[in-house]
C-alpha cells in the first residue's frame, strides 16, 4: 500500500467548533465550548464523540462522523467525564487485586522454597529466558536503583535481592510474565487455586485481562469501548460462562475483575459496584440516551431500585 503525505493543518478552537457543528453537534455556548476544548483538547474529545455517531460502532470507510440528532457538546463532555470516573474507580480496585496477587505469589512459593530466597531467578523453578530478560531489561535498570535494594546490595554479595524485596518494585506485567514462566504446573496451580480457579491456563488468561484493563485505565483509554486483545476464556470454576459478544469487551473483563476481587474481599467488591452505579446514575441524569450503549458494552445495569 502506497503511503500518502500528511496534509492536515492545525485548527483553532473556533475552527474545530465549526467542524463539530457541521457534523450535527449542537453548540449553543461558544465560550463554554472553547473552554471544553482548552481543558480537554479537540483530539482527545474526539474519541468520546464515537458513541453518538449515527453509524456507531462502525469504523473505517463506512463510518459516518455525523452525530445523532439532538447531540450536544455537553453530552459528549459528560461521557468523557464518565469514562474518567470509570478509569479512576477501576484503577483503584485493580491496584487492590495487583497487591493481592503479588502477595500470594511471593508467599506461596517462598513458603514452598523456604531455603531459596531467590527462587524467582532460579533456572530450576523459572524459565531461563525470563530470568535473562528480567535482569537486563528491568532488574538492572529499575529495581537495582531503588533505595531499599541499593542498601541490600551494599550489605550482601548477591546478584539479586530476595523475592519479597524485589517483587515490591515489579510491574504487574512482570508479575504476569513471572507466573507464565514458572516451570512447574504445580506451582502455577498453587497460585491459581488461591483465587478459585484450578485451571492455571485460565488464570493466566485472567491475569492478561486484568493487566490490559489496568493499563487502559492508567493511559487514558475509552473504557466503555475497550476492545481486549486477548479473548476472555471461560474458567472451569471461575466465571464458567462469559456471555457471547462480551469476550473482548470491558463488560466481559468486569466479570473477571468482580470474581477475582470477591476472592480477596467481598466488601471491597460491593464498594466497587456502589461506585460504578453512582457514576452511571450521574451519567444517565445528563445523557439518558447512552443507557443502551453503556449496558451493552460494560454490563453495568441499573435496576429501578438503584
Strand-helix topology:
Layout: H1 13-22, H2 30-40, H3 42-46, H4 73-112, H5 128-139, H6 147-155, H7 163-166, H8 172-180, H9 185-192, H10 200-218, H11 250-264, H12 266-286, H13 291-298
Helix pairs in contact: 4-10, 4-11, 4-12, 8-10, 10-11, 11-12, 11-13
The residue fraction in helices comes out at 55-70%
Number of helices: 13
Number of domains: 2
Shape summary: elongated
Order of helices and strands: HHHHHHHHHHHHH
**Rg over alpha carbons:** 23 Å
**Main sheet makeup:** none
Beta strand %: under 5%
- Note poorly predicted spans: none
Helix/strand/pairing category = mainly alpha
Q: Summarize model confidence as the mean pLDDT.
A: 93
Q: Distance between termini?
A: 53 Å
Got a strand count? 0
Amino acid at each position: 500500500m502506497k503511503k500518502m503525505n500528511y496534509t492536515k493543518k492545525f485548527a483553532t478552537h473556533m475552527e474545530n467548533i465549526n467542524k463539530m457543528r457541521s457534523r450535527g453537534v449542537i453548540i449553543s455556548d461558544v465560550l463554554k465550548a472553547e473552554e471544553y476544548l482548552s481543558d480537554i483538547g479537540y483530539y482527545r474529545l474526539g474519541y468520546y464523540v464515537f458513541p453518538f455517531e449515527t453509524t456507531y460502532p462502525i469504523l473505517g470507510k463506512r463510518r459516518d462522523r455525523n452525530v445523532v440528532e439532538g447531540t450536544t457538546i455537553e453530552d459528549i463532555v459528560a461521557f468523557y467525564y464518565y469514562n474518567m470516573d470509570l478509569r479512576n474507580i477501576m484503577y483503584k480496585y485493580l491496584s487492590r487485586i495487583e497487591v493481592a496477587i503479588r502477595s500470594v505469589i511471593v508467599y506461596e512459593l517462598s513458603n514452598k522454597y523456604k531455603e531459596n530466597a531467590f527462587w524467582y531467578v532460579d533456572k530450576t523453578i523459572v524459565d531461563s529466558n525470563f530470568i535473562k530478560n528480567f535482569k537486563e531489561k528491568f532488574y538492572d535498570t529499575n529495581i537495582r536503583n531503588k533505595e531499599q535494594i541499593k542498601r541490600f546490595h551494599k550489605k550482601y554479595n548477591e546478584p539479586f535481592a530476595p523475592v519479597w524485596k524485589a517483587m515490591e518494585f515489579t510491574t504487574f506485567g512482570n508479575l504476569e510474565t513471572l507466573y507464565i514462566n514458572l516451570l512447574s504446573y504445580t506451582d502455577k496451580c498453587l497460585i491459581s487455586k488461591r483465587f478459585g480457579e484450578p485451571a492455571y491456563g485460565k488464570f493466566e488468561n485472567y491475569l492478561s485481562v486484568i493487566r490490559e484493563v489496568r493499563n487502559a485505565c492508567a493511559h487514558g483509554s475509552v473504557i466503555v469501548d475497550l476492545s481486549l486483545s486477548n479473548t476472555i476464556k471461560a474458567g472451569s470454576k471461575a466465571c464458567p460462562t462469559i456471555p457471547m459478544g462480551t469476550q473482548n469487551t470491558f463488560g466481559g473483563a468486569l466479570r473477571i475483575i468482580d470474581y477475582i476481587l470477591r476472592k480477596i474481599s467481598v466488601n471491597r467488591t460491593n464498594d466497587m459496584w456502589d461506585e460504578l452505579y453512582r457514576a452511571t446514575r450521574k451519567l444517565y441524569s445528563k445523557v439518558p440516551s447512552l443507557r443502551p450503549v453503556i449496558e451493552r458494552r460494560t454490563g453495568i445495569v441499573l435496576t429501578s431500585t438503584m
